[in-house]
């Protein structure tokens, strides 16, 4: 494999994340009763914070806190409910030293989360769900993940119509970049995401992964969110054709992480962190051996001295 190694990095992130010579691991903290992969397990703020701290212990570099499920077919939650779910968790995780991303399509939620210390706005709609989003991103200077999206969860399964899924997704993301620039967002803030499972049938996801270097070559950091998604359930289907359940998809997720990292992904978003934390180190060692850099030893891919953040600041 001769992937290009980790892609460009967004500028406004904390220095300790820039020092990594490998793909970053974003741990998912869903504060929702109904996410498809882990619905309801960490629905109270206390449980969500404890889960986030556990993910940091397992090697997460940053945590993605979301209060609205994007499960296929799901309905929108009220803005106030989303704020009530997300903000206390963001605040407490930031206070414990975590780098926090907020998973929201709403500008008002993004702004409130950044005000409470979130560094990243992860918008699965790429700005299409809320016309005020780009202004918030421009004003706050937060890192912004623009995911490829064609419609909300209740309609997205009907929007899987592509000539060539990779070419079309890249073109639609390029249109988002143009709109972001027009709104005053700096390129250094922007991360792109092909949006696996969003308006993509099972078979549409594999070309997006296999041809990830094409998206990486567009020059922006790339985030990959394959974790526990339906296309992995179908890949791992039992003898009767029944998809593997979400919690049985973690080993396949870690395998995707290794391949995506070797293909140059900047970050992977995962529910089970430990397997992907290992996988990104394997990929870095693999790439390092090809380029003559020692990424497998005890030096470059580790944090310098920031054990506090890795343990959630629990020793402070
Ligand atoms: N997938 C989910 C939620 N947020 N954000 C990004 N950037 N990319 C993704 O692929 C993505 C996301 C799916 O929901 P889950 O949290 O229930 O897995």
For the biggest sheet, the summary is: 8 strands, parallel
**What is the spatial order of strands in the main beta sheet?**
6-5-4-3-2-1-8-7
Q: What fraction strand?
A: 5-15%
Q: Average pLDDT across residues?
A: 88
Structural class by helix and strand composition = alpha/beta
Using the CA coordinates, give the radius of gyration. Answer: 18 Å
- Helix amount, in percent? 25-40%
CATH topology: TIM Barrel
Corresponding CATH architecture: Alpha-Beta Barrel
Just give the CATH class. Alpha Beta
Number of helices: 12
CATH superfamily: Dihydropteroate synthase-like
List low-pLDDT spans: 1-5, 298-316
Bound ligands:
pterin-6-yl-methyl-monophosphate
Count of extended strands: 8
Shape: globular
Keywords:
single chain, 316 residues, alpha/beta, TIM Barrel, 12 helices, 8 strands, 11% strand, globular, disordered N terminus, disordered C terminus, binds pterin-6-yl-methyl-monophosphate
Written description of the protein model:
The protein has 316 residues and is an alpha/beta fold. The protein has a single domain (23-296), classed as TIM Barrel (Alpha-Beta Barrel). The chain has helices at residues 15-18, 45-57, 79-95, 107-115, 133-140, 165-182, 202-210, 212-216, 230-235, 250-262, 273-291, 307-310; strands spanning 24-30, 62-66, 100-103, 120-123, 143-147, 190-193, 223-224, 267-270. An eight-stranded parallel sheet has the order 6-5-4-3-2-1-8-7. The longest helix has 19 residues, at 273-291. The termini are far apart. Pterin-6-yl-methyl-monophosphate (PMM) binds next to strand 1 and strand 5.
């Amino acid at each position: 494999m001769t992937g290009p190694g980790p892609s460009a990095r967004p500028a406004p992130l904390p220095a300790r994340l820039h020092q990594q010579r490998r793909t970053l691991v974003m741990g998912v903290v869903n504060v929702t009763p109904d996410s498809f992969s882990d619905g309801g397990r960490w629905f109270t703020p206390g449980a969500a914070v404890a889960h986030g701290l556990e993910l940091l212990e397992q090697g997460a570099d940053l945590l993605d806190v979301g209060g609205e499920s994007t499960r296929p077919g799901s309905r929108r939650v009220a803005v106030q409910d989303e704020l009530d779910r997300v903000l206390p968790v963001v605040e407490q995780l930031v206070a414990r030293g975590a780098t926090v991303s907020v998973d929201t399509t709403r500008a008002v939620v993004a702004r409130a989360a950044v005000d409470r210390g979130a560094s990243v706005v992860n918008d699965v709609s790429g700005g299409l769900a809320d016309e005020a989003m780009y202004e918030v991103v421009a004003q706050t200077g937060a890192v912004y993940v623009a995911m490829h999206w064609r419609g909300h969860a209740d309609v997205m399964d009907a929007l899987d119509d592509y000539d060539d899924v990779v070419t079309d997704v890249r073109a639609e993301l390029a249109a988002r970049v143009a709109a972001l620039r027009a709104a005053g967002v700096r390129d250094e803030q922007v991360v792109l995401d092909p949006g696996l499972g969003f308006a993509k049938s099972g078979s549409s996801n594999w070309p997006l992964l296999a041809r990830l270097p094409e998206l990486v070559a567009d020059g922006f950091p790339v985030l990959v969110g394959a974790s526990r998604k339906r296309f992995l359930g179908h890949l791992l289907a039992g003898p009767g054709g029944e998809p593997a359940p979400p919690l049985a998809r973690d080993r396949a997720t870690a395998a995707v992480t290794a391949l995506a990292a070797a293909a140059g992904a900047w970050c992977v978003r995962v529910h089970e962190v430990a397997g992907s934390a290992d996988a990104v180190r394997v990929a870095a060692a693999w790439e390092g051996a090809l380029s003559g850099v020692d990424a497998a030893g005890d030096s470059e891919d580790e944090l310098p001295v920031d054990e506090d953040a890795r343990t959630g600041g629990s020793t402070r």
